[in-house]
Amino acid sequence: MTAVLQNDRFLRALLRQPVDQTPMWLMRQAGRYLPEYCATRKQAGSFLQLCQNPALATEVTLQPLERYALDAAILFSDILTVPDAMGLGLYFAEGEGPRFERPLRDEAAIRQLHAPDPEQELRYVMDAVREIRKALQGRVPLIGFSGSPFTLACYMVEGRGSSDGFPVTKTMLHDRPDLFHHILQVTTTAVTAYLNAQIAAGAQAVQLFDTWGGTLTKAAYQEFSLHYMQQIVSGLTREAEGRKVPVIVFTKGGGQWLEMIADTGCDAVGLDWTTDLGDARRRVGDRVALQGNLDPSTLFAQPAAIEREVMRLLDSYGQGSGHVFNLGHGISQFTRPEHVTALVQAVQQHSRAYHRA
Ligand code: 1CP
């Protein structure tokens, strides 16, 4: 028997149903800014071993909930486990971020690409979802996630992160759009099956992380990123355990394209901090909920400044449901945990006034 959900503010806000206060969670809420995360990661050996160990992944997923009154848990994993399961060989060079042993560079390898079976090659992720749901005992909902096909393809072709705009990937996009589309199509099949398997295993909402879609032109964004995210949204299981399973689409740098993103059929659009929350609400109307969008660097400032920024954001969104408070991108590893306490308290304290009917 699955435990009854005790706090459904997050799921309700994503569906624009009334709530008593604005729900919140933080992108990368489990991570290196928490000393207890660093201790568990050390115990696991490496970041990848941590992801592949369902008991330890469960432990770190719950760590931020022990400290802070957050309204959702997010599966502890990484977007790059999917290309790893497609045979690219993920590894982390110490202090240098993710790398692939076999990046996609030649046509033969690209034509052989196949979508993994989530309950086989990604079994450890599904086991983690099941174990986290048990450990949560209905305290808050669990978010599952995946990278968008375009964002995954950036790492798959480049073989690593990039500080200068993924030049190898962009070259393939322009010179061999047929090959690049093939990668995106196989990855779309993989991501759809992966998210549906997470939902079957117990994920109660899912988010697509399109971290690099915002580096494209409008036309290229539509053709190479949005088109595939829309296919995924259409292919997802939208109800489980008698409740809707909301879908959040987050394109970093996607502020110019909110209406198009809302048209994918998602329930909520994630915003980075460069878009004004109030303007975004006026643009999308009652089509979707909005998630975001505190600049993560605000958390380096003193609690009084954090509180001011929270008040400004809540006021910018205004009265009523449909807002999930979050950062505009992942929390920095250099954030002081006490500053997150100040953030969570400020959202709790000041958001109630916006939900009195
Ligand atoms: O402990 C460590 O050293 C690893 C740091 C780390 C962590 C904590 C990585 C490596 N991934 C994660 C976890 C992670 N990644 C989560 C967990 C759930 C959470 O608490 O939110 C999620 C949702 C991700 C998603 C992810 N991984 C994205 C999309 C979101 C974003 O931040 O833009 C991307 C682009 C990645 C790739 C990745 N994995 C790790 C790093 C350092 C990176 C970025 C690489 C780069 O381009 O520089």
Automatic annotation (TrEMBL):
It catalyses: uroporphyrinogen III + 4 H(+) = coproporphyrinogen III + 4 CO2. The record marks 78 as: Transition state stabilizer. GO terms for molecular function: uroporphyrinogen decarboxylase activity. It comes from the Bacteria. The keyword Metal-binding does not apply. Keywords: Cytoplasm, Decarboxylase, Lyase, Porphyrin biosynthesis. It is found in: Cytoplasm. SUPFAM superfamilies: UROD/MetE-like. Its EC number is 4.1.1.37. Substrate binds at residues 28-32, 78, 155, 211, 329. Homodimer. Belongs to the uroporphyrinogen decarboxylase family. This is Uroporphyrinogen decarboxylase.
